[in-house]
Amino acid sequence: MTQTRSRMEAACSLLAESERRYLLYQLAETRRGNLEDIVTEIAAWERGERGAVDSEYRQRVYVSLVHNHLPRLADYDIIDYDLRSGDIVLEEGFDEIRPLLEQFKQTESEPELRETPLP
Q1: How do the pLDDT tens digits run along the chain, 119 residues long?
Q2: How far is CA 118 from CA 22, 55, 99, 103, in A?
């Protein structure tokens, strides 16, 4: 029981950060993505903009993903990534947290996020 509880706590902790959730929402559609495209999408979501996001803000999101969020998700076998190519793919661990991610999605403040189901 302790092991199950700690896995649940780890999953909740991972999903508590909006950038990690947005990353996983993006990847859930195709199970893979490109870092540059995902950085642009996350920056737009965070800023509430659909147009171009300034390069300084995109750089902040990029650094945050590369130095924090991608390694954490990879440590739990949720994603695998290659910084040279920019490829990010979902791993088997994603399927374990998917139901919890769906619950988190229903609590997002943006209606368009809540209304779009995970594929």
Answers
A1: 345 557 788 899 999 999 999 999 999 989 999 999 999 999 988 887 766 788 999 999 999 999 999 999 999 999 999 999 999 999 999 999 999 999 999 888 776 666 666 66
A2: 12, 29, 10, 10
Residues facing residue 32 across a β-bridge: 89
Alpha carbon of residue 36 to chain centroid: 14
65 exposure class (CB count in 10 Å sphere: 0-12, 13-18, 19+): buried
SS3 79: strand
Amino acid at 15: L
Q: In angstroms, rounded to a whole number, what is the distance separating the alpha carbons of residues 40 and 52? A: 8
Q: pTM for this one?
A: 0.86
